[in-house]
Amino acid sequence: MPPGSDYNAIMSEASDDLEKVILGYRTVVSYRVRKALGSFTPDWEDVVNEIITQVLEKVRSREFRGESSIGTFIYIITSRRIVDYIRNKTKVLRHAPDPGHVPDPDESLDQKERADLVARLVRQLKPKYRDVLKLYYFKELSREEVARRLGIPASKVSERLHYAQKLLRKKLRS
Question: Which residues contact 21 (CB under 8 A, 6 or more apart)?
């Protein structure tokens, strides 16, 4: 049929019918997107709308040439859009900062109470044990540096650390 007004009218009518058919696939596309992305994903409806819009645009621009069924055409576009969505979300997540460990309020309270208890028990130790613990653990000095500061041999520092830890464990259990 030569290009003319009749041809354009037929194509326009066929295009309107095809658009109705495409819109009829909305529930199938919705099901497929929700199944792939999860219905808990808040963007799933936007993805469905983008797919339907993309299919309509491709039909209007005559990219759909009828070499396959319209259902196959919609299925391919749907599959590609789902993959694109997942890739984009993965990229965003890959570059997002790690939220880290969010402590449980009860857990942090328990840790604070335990830290307060240990601090109280350390204050109750004899000065020779308390000083070694403070310099080694809180000032983060090496055993040799603690030994020089206190004027005792490094082996004595090790003994006092070991004994102080033993005393603290015993007091924590009781």
Answer: 70
Query: Which two tokens mark 166?
Result: 């033993």
CA distance 99 to 107: 18
Domains of the chain by start residue, with CATH? 5-95 (1.10.1740.10), 105-173 (1.10.10.10)
What are the tokens at 142? 């090496």
Is the CA virtual torsion 73, 77, 78, 80 positive or negative?
positive
pTM above threshold 0.90: no
Alpha-carbon dihedral 86, 87, 88, 91, rounded to 10 degrees:
120
**pLDDT tens-digit profile of 81-124?**
988 888 887 776 666 566 666 666 666 667 788 888 888 888 99
Cα(first)–Cα(last) distance of the chain, in Å?
99
